[in-house]
Design goal:
The complex is a heterodimer of chains A (109) and B (236). Chain A contains four helices and no strands. Chain A is mostly helical and 109 residues long. Chain A starts with a helix and ends with a helix. In chain B, strand 2 (39-45), helix 2 (51-61) and strand 3 form a beta-alpha-beta unit. The chains are: A mainly alpha (109), B alpha/beta (236). Chain A binds chain B through residues 86, 89, 92-93, 95-96, 99-100, 102-104, 106-107, and chain B through 43, 46, 67, 69-73, 75-76, 79, 82-83, 86-87, 90, 178, 180, 231, 235.
Amino acid sequence: MYTYQIILIVLSCIGILFGIYQYKKNNFNNAVLSLWVLVGIAIIVTALFPGITTVIANIFGFGRGLDIIYIISILFLFYIVFKLYNKMEEQKRRINELVSQLALKEYEE
Amino acid sequence: MTNKEIPKITSDIYIILSCYNEEETLEEVVTGLVERGFKVLIIDDGSKDNSPIIARRLVKKFAPNVYHYRHIINVGLGGAIKTGIQAALSRGADIMITFDADGQHNPDDLYNMYPPLQDGIADVVIASRDFSDMPTGRRFGNTVMNYITYIFQGKMVTDSQSGLRAFTASAARKLQLKSPHYGVSSEIIGEIHRRHLEMLEVPMTTIYDERTIQKGTNTLVGIKIILEFLNETLKK
């Protein structure tokens, strides 16, 4: 076993524990916790059996196992950024609505 | 314009005066509007200067023709217009006209705007600036904005970024405005198109000095408007 495999496994375990901790603190809901644990397990499995990524990469026509991980990670990050952006826009919209209603309310009282 | 030419005000007309840090011009603008017989809603969009103090003084001085609505934080032009429309509707306005507090609009131009609405000829009147009077950079920018408005909102107008727009109450009720910032100008054009409102364009005279040139829609604002539209399109 190479050092990087041990590091990945340890980091994933810490990640899963962190997820459970956040779940207990009510910061994560069921969906986020499941995703978090699934990603952790997936990393542990690929760290233990690096050959798997090559098999998957071949199915999709990528050269190396690592490439497919890069691409999936980037797509996932894009998705998260998009979600966050939309959430932020929604919050901004709600704050604007609140400010507007407060201004109108002054005269009603 | 002589007194004889001034069209009679036969309806309840409210001016939606969006104001952000306009302590230098606010009093003069409001006075000019009240003297001409309009009711004024000062929508103070979170100004950090003395605008709120001046506004409160004007409310007392011209009661009951001037009202002051204050956003506790700055939202943007679109937010101010939305608040203004709601305020005007709740006060029972027949006609509402958006106006800038920075002194770039000539209150005499309003005389072209409310008669078609009072006579039922149109639902919306937009006053268009004469692009040939503009500094070259400004003229180019506004022409580009007209095309961008056409692409994203589906309607070509003479001046898509005009700040002088008059609506009947029923037209204003139909508008669904989402943009909190400068994108609202193009969005209003789009809404006129989508809600099948009868629009009339009239000429306006713009007062250009160094201050108003610095304040208006510049290239950066233009780019922001485009990004806002792209995002809205993606969400659909």
